[in-house]
Amino acid sequence: MIQVAEAIRIVEAQTARLPAETIALAGARGRVLAEDVVADTDLPPFDRATMDGYAVRAADTSGATAFAPVRLALVGEAAAGAGWRGELQPGEAVRIMTGAPVPASADSVQQVEVTRELEGGAFVEIERATTAGQFITKRATEITRGETALRAGETINAAKMAALASFGYAQVSVSARPRVSVLATGTELVDVSAQPGADQIRDSNTYSLLAYAEAAGATAERLPFAGDDAELLGRVIGESAQRADVLVLSGGVSMGVYDFTKTALSALGAEIFFERVSLRPGKPTVFARLGQTLVFGLPGNPVSVSVTFNLFARTAIRAMQGARAAALVEEDAVLGRDARGASERASYLPAELRTDATGRLVAEPLRWGGSSDFVAFTRADALVIVAAGARTIAAGTIVRVVRLPA
Question: Is a pLDDT exceeding 80 seen at residue 377?
Answer without folding.
Answer: yes
